[in-house]
């Protein structure tokens, strides 16, 4: 069932509470799809970086081959934030008068610490990965950070698009004001030499700022449209059959729906076996209560159950065996 969903989408996000199996399930689904003949890119946006640990190799910001038809890349929020802020610095330098560079640096140093900056940087990278990846991959699988981060991330394109819209509106207002002021000076000095032509550095600067803001708004709008396009994108919530993961999944589902993101599947990982002794039997019965709680709170979303495995899930072979269980 999970593979049916994956087979009909181009973009999949895996999210859920920390430690429930997001990375393992995302990798196994990616591998299963690659085996089915699709070209797949696996992307980790979790600072915990366990994609590399799972495949037992170093995976960084450059795409590496993990298996036939399967590539992987890790987005490091810290490094991404640095890159993002230096790109912003370059942009601001190019549009601000030279003597304000100190102000720009002060502002950016504060920005680094402020809430939302990491998410905005990661979001830019996600937008970039989708933009460059969709033409060359059949499927892009995102293994996301634990729930809180991810639900904020999914709501962000909308917020960023309207924030940029607000800035554009302010600029329109200040452009009018600027034009009026220039009109006034022209009137008062009566020289007739000050022309409002495109060579006016102020007009040129305004045009440049508008272009940057417009490009940014378009990028976020495109990302928002991709995230909300049910035919293209689906979100898979991974959990275990325990109280807190169930409650956290219900909350995550609410946030995703509010952001307009389609939740296509719930994956309940690490289900205890019913035929392996009294102890695990009792655990399984307890899990049944939480399975009921889940279907009561989130009715109508298909559920896939995956078994608790006896061994440690690391290395390509283990991912391969897990992929065999995806069904
Ligand atoms: N079905 C399973 N059976 C046994 N161990 C599992 C199973 N799924 C995941 N694990 C193990 O649980 C730990 C957390 O899994 P991981 O995929 O890293 O979770 P997350 O990405 O949600 O933090 C890892 O050590 C992984 O090997
Ligand atoms: Mg993980």
Automatic annotation (TrEMBL):
Keywords: ATP-binding, Nucleotide-binding
Database matches in InterPro entries: ArsA/GET3_ATPase-like, ATPase_ArsA/GET3, P-loop_NTPase
GO MF terms held by the record: ATP binding; ATP hydrolysis activity
Top-level division of the source organism's lineage: Bacteria
ArsA/GET3 Anion-transporting ATPase-like domain boundaries: 10-326
One Pfam family named in its UniProt record: ArsA_ATPase
Signal sequence, renumbered to the chain: none
Record family assignment: Belongs to the arsA ATPase family.
NCBIfam families: GET3_arsA_TRC40
Protein's name according to its UniProt entry: Arsenite efflux ATP-binding protein ArsA
Species, as recorded: Pseudonocardia ammonioxydans
